[in-house]
Amino acid sequence: MRHFISIADLDRSQAIEVLATAEHMAETQSRSIRKLPTLLGSTVVNLFFEDSTRTRISFEAAAKRLSADVINFSAKGSSLSKGESLKDTALTLQAMGADAVVVRSASSGAAHQLAHAGWIDQPIINAGDGAHEHPTQAMLDAFTLRRHLRSGDHHGGLDGLHVVIVGDVLHSRVARSNVLLLTLLGARVTLVAPPALVPVGARAWPCEVIYDLDEALAAGPDAVMMLRVQRERMVGGGFFPTEGEYARRYGLSTQRAARLPGHTIVMHPGPMNRGFEIAGDVADSERSVIVEQVASGVFVRMSVLYHLLATDVREDAR
């Protein structure tokens, strides 16, 4: 891999290889010294045009556990806020000796532009671009699914599993990346959302689209992934009548969760709106793997950095 921009850039074998390496990274964390010297001397820049806590800290932790130096670069208060172009910022990062750049932006395609415009030679990792994609989030979700529903098999995909993704699909880069990755790995995906929160063209995606959550849950899925309702992107409103109506029809309530098969796991990319898209006791229940997803993110991002930067590996993480 040269860059990590979109799940669409991966084939099945590459996706499984990233997941398998993440499994090895997870195993190293049981050691007394959890750091690996793999990227000693490398510098990873987190270039975040959007606020993020989980994703930025996760990438920072991943890079540091591989012994890389990390520079966190926020657009707020930087030259970007004074009108500097993305091109000039890229040239500055390259001049400073960045070995990889992790970019998060509200603009769809920003990571792709940074990777392919010829401004910078270093690997680019997409940490979320607009409503387009969030590929490492999809990878950590797949990693978590394999650990729970494919226990002991860390060399295959997710063939035969059924995953239901619920909520604000229209504004969700997480949903798009997950549909691409989960189906690539052999899972069946069902999207559930109010009609106004289903993207135009979603029926051409490799998944089923329905509007009734109870119907989707009655099929007995292996995993239910709730999405955050992104109010900040809902300019003009009108996407659903009221919050109460949304919660009644599309929220994962205690009653709905109780009807799920015993093995079904509950997921959420965070941050959660408790009591709105998911009941608090469901988020904290034994079937919830939401906290584990955060830990999975570190291992997956270690794997991605390893595959992009570890050309001279000083320790075999496998």
Automatic annotation (TrEMBL):
L-aspartate binds at K82, R173, R228. InterPro entries: Asp/Orn_carbamoyltranf_P-bd, Asp/Orn_carbamoylTrfase, Asp/Orn_carbamoylTrfase_sf, Asp_carbamoyltransf, Asp_carbamoyltransf_Asp/Orn-bd. The keyword Transferase applies. GO terms for biological process: 'de novo' pyrimidine nucleobase biosynthetic process; 'de novo' UMP biosynthetic process; amino acid metabolic process. It holds the Pfam family OTCace. Its EC number is 2.1.3.2. Heterododecamer (2C3:3R2) of six catalytic PyrB chains organized as two trimers (C3), and six regulatory PyrI chains organized as three dimers (R2). Belongs to the aspartate/ornithine carbamoyltransferase superfamily. ATCase family. This is Aspartate carbamoyltransferase. The lineage of its organism: Bacteria, Bacillati, Actinomycetota, Actinomycetes, Micrococcales. The gene is pyrB.
